[in-house]
Amino acid sequence: MISLWLVLAVLAQTGSPSSPAPMKENRAPVAAQPAPANQPSSPEVDRLFAIAATQGGNAEIDMAELAVKRGSANEIKGYASKMIAEHKGLMEEMMPVLQRLASNPPAERLAPPDELAKRHLEAVKPVDFDQVYIMEQIGGHLAMLTAFQTEADNGTDAQLKELVRKWMPTIEAHLQLAVDTAKHVGGASPFKQ
């Protein structure tokens, strides 16, 4: 899963959400404040995205392998098998880009929040596993889709943007499949139908 820190880092690429300029008494707009000097540059955000997407993909594969072993519903096992195959494909394509953008990639296979989520999933009672896993998938794929969309719209590395655009439909399909699967394992959809 892509961590929240990735979503925040990628959103920093476009600045804070737009809001109307503050108004003076005479209703004339006040000049916009310059962006803080400590925001990462666009190439740095591309590098951070590549690292986080790779770590998130690794987490996705690890949690799906756990779901294949611990899941009880056939729908969960089928969903998890699909996640393993497709995220491994994404990782194969992402690694050369990561190696180019991050000359010194992190040694950690998973980001700390993903490692914590994996440990939590390992500790879930068998009776609750399917629901916890699929709800994690919905949240994780929503975050991943947001990060990928932001990178596609605002990234500066052409090869990374092309890769992100190529894989976005797959991530959208994963999210939809997770929502559909949640209905089959007794989880309520987080979306209004």
Mean pLDDT: 81
Task: Give the CATH H-level superfamily.
Answer: Ferritin, core subunit, four-helix bundle
Cα distance spanning the termini = 25 Å
- Number of distinct beta strands: 0
CATH level 1 class label: Mainly Alpha
CATH topology heading: Ferritin
Tell me the strand percentage band.
under 5%
Low-confidence stretches: 13-36
Number of domains: 1
**What is the alpha-carbon Rg in Å?**
19 Å
Q: Sum up the overall morphology in one term.
A: globular
Order of helices and strands: HHHHHH
Label the CATH architecture. Up-down Bundle
Q: Main β-sheet, in a few words?
A: none
* Structural class computed from helices and strand pairing: mainly alpha
Please tally the helical runs, counting DSSP H or I stretches of 4 or more residues: 6
Helix content: 55-70%
What multimeric state do the chains show? Answer: single chain
3D architecture notes:
The protein has six helices and no strands. It is an all-alpha fold and 193 residues long. It has a single domain, classed as Up-down Bundle (Ferritin), CATH 1.20.1260. Helix 1 runs parallel beside helix 5 and helix 2 (42-70) runs parallel beside helix 4. The model is unreliable at 13-36 (pLDDT under 50).
